[in-house]
Amino acid sequence: MPQILAASLAGFVAGELLNSYVLVKMKARSGEHGLWSRLMASTVVGELADTTIFCLIAASAIGISTGSDLINYIVVGFVWKTLCEASVLPISTTFIKFAKRYEPTYFASVPA
Q: Full-prediction pTM beyond 0.90?
């Protein structure tokens, strides 16, 4: 249990930090345009880091014993999580656009 908890926390922290980093860097380049591509690119980077770190740390606790099993688990987990995120992308983009439109402090804090 502690090994899986440590793997989950490490994967989550690394994945979220990389996800945020990619979002910020891409937005600095494209401004308000390209929301869909920013969200998908950050998801790909974040999920790959999350899944890889989790699997590397938790491998022995979840029954991964060979290199091919490890690669398979990483690839399947990454693809599954990325597809799940892609499937809710229309909801995410709609909510983000709504929030930007009605949040009074959003445009006050965006540099010109």
A: no
